């Protein structure tokens, strides 16, 4: 059974995950069996810095997660999904706000009593 805070089965889009804190976060998520799509500049080994996006994917899979080297199409897909969700949340918030305004525009006896109690 997974805990409520578990990342098992979740997919994470990680930018800058080939080394450092990004890799540490990705490895922690991998221990929860998360899917991790890595976006990183380091595709080829650099003698000055250890690790590439490909070595990071290997480490993620050793830690129990599922790693994938992400590209532009992954980023566009995730951004599109995020924008869609943000718009849905904004629409929901606007609908709630409008319903509250309707109550204050023409309050019924119960709402008027609540407003009077707060004043």
Explain what the structure shows:
With about 120 residues, the chain is mainly alpha-helical. The chain has two domains: about 10-70, FAD/NAD(P)-binding domain (3-Layer(bba) Sandwich), CATH 3.50.50.60; about 75-119. About 55% of the residues lie in helices and about 10% in strands. It is built from four helices and three strands, in the order βαβαβαα. It has helices spanning about 20-30, 55-60, 70-105, 110-119, and strands at about 10-15, 35-40, 65-70. A three-stranded parallel sheet has the order 1-2-3, sandwiched between helices. Strand 2 (about 35-40), helix 2 and strand 3 form a beta-alpha-beta unit. Helix 1 packs parallel to helix 2 (about 55-60). The longest helix has about 35 residues, at about 70-105. It is elongated, with a radius of gyration of 23 Å. The model has no long low-confidence stretch (mean pLDDT about 80).
Helix content: 55-70%
For the secondary structure, the number of strands is 3
CATH fold naming of the largest domain = FAD/NAD(P)-binding domain
Based on the structure, what is the oligomeric state of the protein chains? Answer: single chain
Number of domains: 2
Q: Please state the average pLDDT score.
A: 79
Assign the CATH class of the largest domain: Alpha Beta
Report the total helices.
4
Low-confidence stretches: none
Over the alpha carbons, how many angstroms does the gyration radius reach?
23 Å
Percentage of residues in strands: 5-15%
Spatial separation of the terminal alpha carbons: 50 Å
Which structural class matches the secondary elements? mainly alpha
Query: What composes the largest sheet?
Result: 3 strands, parallel
Please give the order of strands in the largest beta sheet: 1-2-3
The CATH architecture term of the largest domain is 3-Layer(bba) Sandwich
Shape: elongated
H/E element string? EHEHEHH
Q: Tell me the CATH superfamily of the largest domain.
A: FAD/NAD(P)-binding domain
């Amino acid at each position: 059974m997974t805990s409520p805070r578990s990342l098992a089965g979740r997919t994470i889009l990680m930018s800058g995950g080939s080394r450092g804190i990004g890799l540490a976060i990705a490895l922690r998520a991998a221990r929860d069996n998360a899917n991790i799509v890595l976006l990183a500049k380091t595709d080829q080994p650099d003698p000055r810095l250890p690790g590439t996006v490909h070595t990071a994917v290997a480490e993620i899979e050793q830690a129990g997660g599922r790693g994938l080297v992400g590209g532009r199409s992954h980023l566009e897909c995730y951004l599109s999904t995020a924008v869609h969700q943000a718009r849905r949340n904004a629409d929901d918030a606007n609908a709630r706000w409008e319903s509250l305004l309707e109550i204050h525009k023409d309050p019924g006896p119960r709402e008027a009593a609540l407003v009077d109690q707060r004043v």
